[in-house]
Amino acid sequence: MTTEKVTAGTSLPERRREQRAPRDGIDVSVVIPLLNEEDSLPELHDRITAEFERGKWSGEIVFVDDGSTDSSFRVIETLAGGDSRVRSIKFRRNFGKAAALSAGFACAAGDYVITMDADLQDDPKEIPRLIAKLEEGFDVVSGWKKVRHDPITKTLPSKLFNAVTSFFTGISLHDFNCGLKGYRKAAVKELDLYGELHRYIPALAGWKGFRVTEIEVTHHARQFGTSKYGPARFLNGFLDLMTVMLLTRFTLKPLHLFGMLGAILGTGGFVICAFLVSLKLQFGNIQGRNPLLMLGVLLIITGFQFVSTGLLAEMIASQRGERARDFSVERTIGL
After folding, report:
1. What is the mean pLDDT of residues 61-66?
2. Domain check: are 151 and 291 in the same one?
3. Are 37 and 19 in contact (CB under 8 A)?
4. How far is Cα of residue 327 from the mean position of the Cα atoms in its chain?
5. In this structure, are 276 and 133 located in the same domain?
6. Which of 27, 152, 172, 175 has the fewest CB atoms within 10 Å, i.e. the most exposed one?
7. Which of 249, 268, 285 lies at the terminal end of a domain, its last residue?
8. 3-state SS track over 232-294
9. How far is Cα 233 from Cα 252, in angstroms, rounded to an integer?
10. How far apart are the first and last CA of the chain?
């Protein structure tokens, strides 16, 4: 047993940092967000470490326990006791997958970062293929579960979700939601995830200029536990898509969005009111078109409100723009 030497004025967190092994030179970090997956963790650990040995990589496994209520973290502690490559973060409560990935990305030290779910549906044997694709020059490689072992209640909404997301984001992928992905370190360090934005990582990365692609991956049927996702996630996903569109295209130019909508509505209202004015001049009345008059006035007022909202948003964005880094640097020369 190692005896810890306590130095006056040194806090416990600082002493723990001094005891940690150096993490420089790690090739691959596997980040695994999890919630109540105690049964699958030992087998998942064995499969991942087997790939580390096969690929002769210096690797680490970062488990992020997103507030599990079972024995998941105790299992992780046991794994860490026998394998120095195992690291873990435990949340005080369930904060969601985006928060778990963000925490895992922050502490991942590998040149390549692989993410996968903890339920054994993602196959660790795909890790070498993801890395090989990254070595071709891509920054983000997303898995595509072309053959899925899930009920139709999950596969059909997923296809619709992916089609709509590809259309609006301009990133053509078959499976945005696949948990099995590979990243270069530079990509994960620039991702700002919160809420449910983990579904749109390829879109967020692509908008920053990172090269995104996908490969087909093997998908297994769930062996333990139950799915953590219900039908509500698809509705939430489409709402989050609006957030992604705002973040990627209109964060620093909100008037382009609100002004365009306001102009369309205001123009429609102006045309209606102009038509009614022509009736008044021609016939002395508006021919009983009072509902149309109300609609025209409503559209003009609504259009004005949209433009006003856009101007206020521009003022806020201008303050953020002075501090924000709205670009991504790939390399420099002479700096």
Report:
1. 95
2. no
3. no
4. 18
5. no
6. 152
7. 249
8. HHHHHHHHHHHHHHHHHHCCCCHHHHHHHHHHHHHHHHHHHHHHHHHHHHHHCCCCCCHHHHH
9. 28
10. 48
Q: Which domain holds residue 223?
A: 24-249
Report the alpha-carbon angle 114-150-165, nearest 5. 65
Asked if 205 and 166 sit in the same domain, the reply is yes
The answer to the question of residue 327 being in a domain is no
The answer to whether position 81 is within a domain reads: yes
With b meaning 16 or more CB within 10 Å and e meaning fewer, what string describes 234-252?
Answer: beebeebbeebbebbbbee
User: Distance of alpha carbon 9 from its chain centroid, rounded?
Assistant: 41
Task: Go through the chain and tell me how many residues it has.
Answer: 335
pTM of the model: 0.71
Does residue 144 share a domain with residue 265? no
DSSP per-residue string spanning 5-25? PP-TT--HHHHHHHHSPP-TT
What are the φ and ψ backbone dihedral angles of 158, each rounded to 5 degrees? -65, -40
- pLDDT tens, 199-256? 888 888 888 889 999 999 988 877 666 665 555 666 666 667 777 777 666 666 777 7
Q: Which two tokens stand for residue 103?
A: 């925490």
pLDDT digits (tens, 9 = 90+) for 131-172: 999 999 999 999 998 887 667 767 777 788 888 888 877 888
For residues 243 and 130, state if they share a domain.
Answer: yes
Whether 186 is in a domain gets the answer: yes
Asked whether residue 75 falls in the same domain as residue 208, the answer is yes
Cα distance between residue 90 and residue 48, in whole Å = 20
Amino acid at 5: K
Residue 59 CA: distances (Å) to CA of 17, 28, 54, 136: 19, 5, 12, 20
